[in-house]
Amino acid sequence: MDTSLILTLVIPYLKTLLPMGLLVFVIRSPWFKGYMGELLVRWLARMRLPRDTYIPLHNVTLPTPDGTTQIDHIYVSRYGVFVIETKNMRGWIFGSEQQAQWTQKIYRKPFRFQNPLRQNYKHLKALEAALDIPADRLHSVIAFVGNCDFKTEMPANVTYGRQYIDYIQSFKEPVFSEEEISAIVERIQASRFTPSMVTHKQHVTQLKARSNPRADRLCPACGKQLVVRTVKRGVRAGEQFWGCSGYPACRVTQQLVAGVPAN
């Protein structure tokens, strides 16, 4: 058969199949699953948490000593500040509060993932530093969605489906005034990086860098490359650290240590 005729017949099908294949690839990606999980948690909260009582802030990226941390959802209320980490997963979930790694099992095949309580602890510490409020007024909430099932007993703040809303609403004692709530929201807005693809990309770069203490990484303040420098004077002489290549205009520094990959 003539080659030109084959191409004439095949190309229309390829034009249809390629976009479909790309769509399937995106839908199956961890990024898409995480994004859909965050949207679901956000939508359910909007339906059941009154916005005049629980002020929502989503996709909040804050600076930390070793880079940045990214918080899925924050709800500020007179009952406290609720920090939600979303997990869109399927299969059986095994874990305890003390374990560094939890296990997801799908058809008897195990997969390890970071203990989300520890992951969210970093979020709480970043907020505590930004807000300067008592730690007991910050509440960690883990919201699992998707077709998953807990196979070990979980703490009350590790929830499935709509349970995270019930947990948030279980706090009945006011701890903030209306003025304090407004101040907290303003402080978070002032401390966060502008939500954008650039911010997200820089955050992902920071995550990869923390798994390799000498990998290339970007400055969380200005986006320029961080470089390894050495302390030349004082009691810390000889110690190495990350310093922004934009110095002296940018004076961001970070410790030269391997961090636990977490957002």
Detailed description of the structure:
The strands form 3 sheets. A 5-stranded mixed sheet has the order 1-2-3-7-9, sandwiched between helices. The chain has a 4-stranded mixed sheet with strand order 6-5-4-8. A 4-stranded antiparallel sheet has the order 10-11-12-13. 37% of the residues lie in helices and 29% in strands. By secondary structure, the protein is α+β, with helices and mostly antiparallel strands. It contains 6 helices and 13 strands. Mean pLDDT is 82; it is low at 23-27 and 258-262.
Residue-averaged pLDDT, rounded? 82
Question: What proportion of the residues form beta strands (DSSP E)?
Answer: 25-35%
Overall SS class: alpha+beta
Radius of gyration: 22 Å
The quaternary state of the protein chains shown equals single chain
- Measured between the Cα atoms of the first and last residue, the distance is 56 Å
Q: Which strand order does the major sheet show?
A: 1-2-3-7-9
Q: What percent of residues adopt helix (DSSP H or I)?
A: 25-40%
Shape: globular
The number of distinct β-strands equals 13
Question: In sequence order, what are the helices and strands, one letter per element?
Answer: HHEEEEEEHEEEHHHEEEE
Largest sheet: 5 strands, mixed
> Number of helical segments?
6
User: Unreliable runs, pLDDT <50, ≥5 residues?
Assistant: 23-27, 258-262
